[in-house]
Amino acid sequence: MSIDKVISDIRICRSLWENMGRSSKDKRDIYYRLAKEEGWRARSAFKLLQLDEEFNLFKGVRRAVDLCAAPGSWSQVLSRKLRGTEENSEDVKIVAVDLQAMAPLPGVTQIQGDITKITTAQEIIKHFEGQPADLVVCDGAPDVTGLHDVDEYIQAQLLLAALNITTHVLKPGGTFVAKIFRGKDVTLLYSQLKVFFSGVTCAKPRSSRNSSIEAFVVCENYSPPEGYIPNMSNPLLDHSYDVDFNQLEGPNRIIVPFLACGDLSAFDSDRTYPLQLDPSKEYRYTPPIQPPIRPPYQQACHLRKNNLLSKEDSPTVSFGGAFSALHLSANQESDTAAAAAAAAPQLDSCEMNEEEAAEQEVQ
Amino acid sequence: MSVSECEMADRKSAAVMESLMLVAPVTALEFLEEEYLLAGEGPILSVYSLQTLLINCTSLSVLQNQRIHGIHLDPWQQERGATAAAPKEEELFVSPWQQSGRVRSVVLAVFGGKAVRVVGLKETGCGGPSLEALGPVIELQDWVCDVRWLRARAPLLAVALAHNAVLLLEAGKGWSLALCSCQEGCLLYSALLLGQRWDDMVIVGGTVFNQLVIWRPGEVGEDGRDRIEGLQMEVGRTAQVEKRLSGHSGVIFSLAYLPKHGWLASASDDRSVRLWGVGALGGVAGCGVPAPPCLRVLYGHQARVFSVRLSPGRVFSAGEDGACLQWGWDSGRVERSLKGHIAGGVRALALSGGGRAVEVACDWGGRRRDQALEGMQVHLRAGRGKVHSVLWAGQDGVRAYLLASGTAGQVFRWLLEGALYSCGRDGCVRELRVGAGDRLEVLRVERACRGMEWVERVLILDPEEGGEEQGTGEGCQMVVLGFQSVFFVVWDPVRRERLLSVPCGGGHRSWSYCPPSGPHRAGGALVFVKQGAVLATQVPQDPQGAVSWGLKVGLHGRGMGCVCRLGWVGPAGQGERWEILAAGGEDTSLSVLALQPLSGALRVLSVITDHISSVRALAVGLRGKMRIDGQKHGCSQTDGHTVTSLSSLLISAGGRAQLQCYRLLVGWGSQLSSPFCQVIQVASHRLDEQWERRRNRHKIVKMDPETRYMSLAVLHDGPEWILLAVGCSDGAVRVFSVSEVDGSFQLLWESFYHQRCVLSVAPCCLKDPQSNRKLFMFSGATDGRVAVWDMSTITAWRASPTAAPTWNGTCSPCLTFTVHQSGVNSLAVWEGHGDGQTGWMTVASGGDDGQLSVVNIRVQFHQQLVEGSTMCVELQSQSTVLLAHAAPLTALRHLGPSLLVSASPDQRVCLWSLCSSAPHHHSPGPHQQGPASASMAPPHISRTPPLTSMALPYTSRACSSHTWPTQRAWRCGLGLGVKAEPG
Ligand SMILES: C[S@@+](CC[C@H](N)C(=O)[O-])C[C@H]1O[C@@H](n2cnc3c(N)ncnc32)[C@H](O)[C@@H]1O
Question: Which residues constitute the domain of residue A188?
């Protein structure tokens, strides 16, 4: 056997080793895998790209805001699309905001902060004084708690906070794109957005799963009501059903047009694909580009890994007279059938394994 | 279309659906002294008595379409009643009860979402308590994080809002009196209001950016009191943040304060609980000490911490990992860990009586009451040498078992039901019965609990004595005993809960367990041998001691993905019969449920845990021969009789390409007047089984996709086999046969025509002029396309012993059309009236795009072959309601000739009447086909979030348009709802 063969065998073994376990997400989620292979920090990049395919979002855009940007795949898309390869990329301005820290990106100004907080909003606004933005995008989502009403509410608040910032920084005629949960009160958000934009569409990129209630509102042609003065200290509150939740028509039962975005030939995010996509190309595991910088659970995970999480102490062994009244002798009772039923198998396991058990306890 | 038809459509469109029953997760809990427990389940407030075994006394729907997140007792009610009484400042403990004559009452503020409501609980001398709304639902502009009753002559409430503001509310009328926002405009996940008066109250806010902020909304001003009394709304005032507590690295989900010690506790997304020494808050003390120290950081949860409560010396926390931890304040260590339902997590937690009792409520309505459980271990020395065996004697429970022997462990005979259980060190419990020729037949093999590799015994506990009259009797309970690493575990397979866990050192030892007895299920003890000594762990017999009471059965913790109805058992009377449903969930389990819509009773009859991934689709076969001799089970649903048993074949499909089939025998015990269920495993199938069998599979990367089965439909329900259509995530539609005789699934056919995830499948059957049955299959994928397949010859097909067991009939669809922009979530197909040469099919579909579409398909039968086929299938007409729902349309059912019902996560269930669904009143001609159109009936709100599936009784398929039996729709998602459309 040649040495080359041995080396190549070793290499194959190693790559198999590396692929084990980690490939399962690649199998379940084609866009997750593609994102890694194409160098995006998150699969969400495809959502923005597919929205752009339909709406031409970046046409003529020089200044953009990316709200809730971490880990930064939308900023990557903006950076690539706006700056391109042109020389005059100096007048391109991209401001990215998130609660989480984010690895730097060329031409992207970062702000770490809560977009629902006035101070953060003011900081963003400062960047666009005199020179309004052409595009505001927001992919904000709460960490889903599983309580749907809470998650939907927080999501709606992120959208409204983004809208509030938008009213300060967006130029008339500009575009606002935001993630939205199509849940119980989505019509109220539509009616709120309709106040500020002449075109509101609910769009679902093909890279967003069919099974998820997530979609994106693409709001075109910013045209605030006449005389509207943006006000930071009074947050935009949700609209409410002024009559009845059950009502079918009226200003609060606005349902905006729906549009599925992205080429039909694109990958289907709900479909499970084999790892070997292309028969001529061997599957290789690609590590993630940019894992979250400091997730909230970091410390907890560290403790858990090192078995440092607090655990229940084993019950204390105390002696009390309470049991002395009980008959614990096996011999006494062994004449009854019932007792035999309980006793026989115990004997069995005892005899075989008393030593083993002792060993176990030592460990 | 004729005029009369239009009128008919109109009349029907006025039909109203009414909600019959709702099972929702528990999201709020509060003790009313030691007498009652108040729980919020969806919009419903329920009262449980703590004295009488936690029976549900009364319930009231209080918050319309909002979910209850908190309940607060009014402590100042008495004081308010006594008009002139001067407030006693120092008095700390006040009873919330107000006595007037023989009537006692309390006032509650119930809040959730953007609503607050005041509710009264009244107790008259006789009978139980009653609930009554004392005012309208007060709808606010903003989300409510907390409320607090104020000590004032008028019923005033301070309301903490999610935008870091506090509202002063006149609770009776719902008037807003004052609003104060914090200058730190931000979003709060949680808030806590403290203090007795508006002027000096303090709010602690848990922000999104990991900080706690403390500030005072009602600064002390001379005009303070006048303003409140004068009932003038004041807005626009702002206040400064006075204190900030930083340290958490995630959002804050819950806050608690212990005035006696001046401790504040916070629970966070970062999985920790922190304790802060804030000192006195509220009143003259203001915002507490200048620089509050963080006294403790408690890490112990495996996931987010949702709730925290304080008692003197103890901290209780509960979280997403389903655990409730009791921490010692001094040690900073976990003293006790109560493991609730694993899936779903614990949302609400309440303490009563100074922390002696802990109430744990689960997301899923599973709820336990644990009083500081101090398991006692007693040390006995029996002699010098080795102790080989110990056992309990004189226990009543033991009588029920009969040893039948076996190599895998023990076999016990449970005389009552005639079923045998065996268990062994493979971690499985086998259910057997004596079949024909006195042979043992295995009915079901079930894994006990995860990690429980060594099952030692199965115990059948006697039904609770006297429990039945009080409505909690659950019949017999089975528990599994075994070892899980170093613990001895008592496992409840229905509730999926560890009842007891003792660190005895692991298997291979001699032990004996005495089950708890009596109405409280109190007591119970384990004796075991460890290092030559006999140790006993006893759970105190005293009901005041260690008790865990199940208040409510838990349902699938992480949401139900599918539900289907099997039938009913019990007396025929509307109110008394038990509807039998099967449901599957993301927690990978399947459950068989019995519910009585009118009484609201719900029982979990059986939980099946064979799936290794989430259960996504269910189907039922009603025919088919039973293999088992000697017993005749049948579905005799004749009115006026008692149906004592029901037998059907349940097929489930889910992730990892897994199919399971069970024979369910649901009986009705007239003595106990409750249903019970026996589950027999019939067949099981996994696509990747071939791969699983490879010995070196851990060394190679699995190249196959991990296909999920998305939907399931019965194509043919024959006496010997059932044909199933399965929509698969790998882009295939597959047809399987399942036979009870062979006990296996067979893959007969597959097509990758769609090349996209197939979301829905549905069958339709027509008769051709020669009265041959023509079987069509419909499949819909994520690209909005529907394919129609001619499957007619598959029912007659038999595998020849030599050839491969596959059917190669159709290889391409006979018709395809696009109805939606994105996924076709749900399909409903039915036959229209044809005449001789022509058949009609109507396809209704619900899409991810929120659209409802109705398509008419014409099938022209030819005398001879035309273009290689004896029939021509073509699309005749299509009509759509573009924005039927504001969110994806997730479920659609055909209720009758011209009635459709649809459901969506926008939380509306809509009824649609078709003005002319099938053109049967017209002579078929291309120009006369009136397009089927849908008009909308008043939609009905469902209060439970995401609706994913809906099942309807079979009766609705067969009913005519004039004599409508009551229609019921079962919705599921997070919770289960039953809607009825009265005839
Ligand atoms: C789905 S991720 C965004 C992914 C991003 N668009 C990309 O392509 O990489 C949602 C982000 O919203 C952020 N977020 C949530 N709440 C926020 C808030 N109140 N202020 C700022 N960011 C927030 C989270 O930190 C998270 O990084």
Answer: 27-261
The residue among A261, A277, A311 that closes a domain is A261
What is the domain count for chain A? 2
For residues A160 and A94, state if they share a domain: yes
* Nearest atom within ligand 1 for CA of residue A139: 6
What is the crossing angle of helices A186-196 and A148-169, to 10°? 0
Conformational region of residue A48, where left means phi above 0, alpha means psi within -120 to 50, and beta covers everything else: alpha
Instruction: Based on the residue annotation, tell me whether A179 is a catalytic residue of this protein.
Output: yes
Distance CA B867, CA A336 (A): 81
Residue B813: which pLDDT band, with cuts at 50, 70 and 90? very high
Q: How confident is the model at residue A51 (pLDDT cuts 50, 70, 90)?
A: very high
Residue B471 has pLDDT above 90, yes or no: no
Pocket test for ligand 1, best of A50, A51, A98, A158 (most atoms within 8 A of CB): A98
> Do A228 and A357 belong together in one domain?
no
* Range from A65-79, B568-582, B926-940 that averages highest in pLDDT: A65-79
- Map tokens 């913790």 to a residue: B557
CA distance A90 to chain B (A): 33
Q: What angle do CA B321, B322, B328 make, to 5 degrees?
A: 90
Q: Which residue has the tokens 């620089």?
A: B291
Q: Are B187 and B211 contacting, i.e. CB atoms less than 8 angstroms apart?
A: no
- Residue after which a domain boundary falls, among A193, A226, A261: A261
Based on the fold, state whether residues A233 and A331 are members of the same structural domain: no
- List, edge to edge, every strand of the sheet that includes B773-781: B758-767, B773-781, B785-790, B815-818
A210 and A340 assigned to the same domain: no
In the reported structure, the alpha carbon of residue A118 is separated from the centroid of ligand 1 by a whole-number distance in angstroms of 17
Q: Tell me: the pLDDT tens digits for A95-134? A: 999 988 889 998 899 999 999 888 899 999 999 988 999 9
Residues lining ligand 1, judged by CB closer than 6 Å? A 41-42, 44-45, 68-74, 98-100, 114-116, 139-141, 158; B 208
pTM above 0.80, yes or no: no
Residues A135 and A220 in one domain: yes
Q: Are residues A249 and A181 in the same domain?
A: yes
In which band, very low, low, confident or very high, does the pLDDT at B497 lie, cut at 50, 70 and 90? Answer: low
> B614 pLDDT band (50/70/90 cuts)?
confident
**Segment B149-162, tens digit of pLDDT:** 998 888 899 999 99
Looking at the fold, whether A246 and A330 belong to one and the same domain comes out as no
DSSP structural state of residue A69? -
Amino acid at A118: I
A339 located within any domain: yes
Q: How far apart are CA B390 and CA B394, in angstroms?
A: 13
Same domain, A126 and A250: yes
Examine residue A37 and state whether it is found in any structural domain, yes or no: yes
Element containing residue B56 per DSSP (H, E)? strand B56-61
A249 vs B405: which has the higher pLDDT? A249
List, as one string, the DSSP characters of B454-521: EEEEEEEEPPPTTTTTTT-----EEEEEEEETTEEEEEETTTTEEEEEEE---SSS-EEEE--BTTTT
Q: How far apart are CA B395 and CA B530, in angstroms?
A: 23
In a 3-state reduction of DSSP, which class is residue B819?
Answer: coil
A107 domain residue, yes or no: yes
Q: Alpha carbon B365 to chain centroid distance?
A: 8
A264: helix, coil or strand? coil
Q: Does B711 lie at the interface with A, CB-CB under 8 angstroms?
A: no
A26 SS3 class: helix
Is residue A293 in a domain?
no
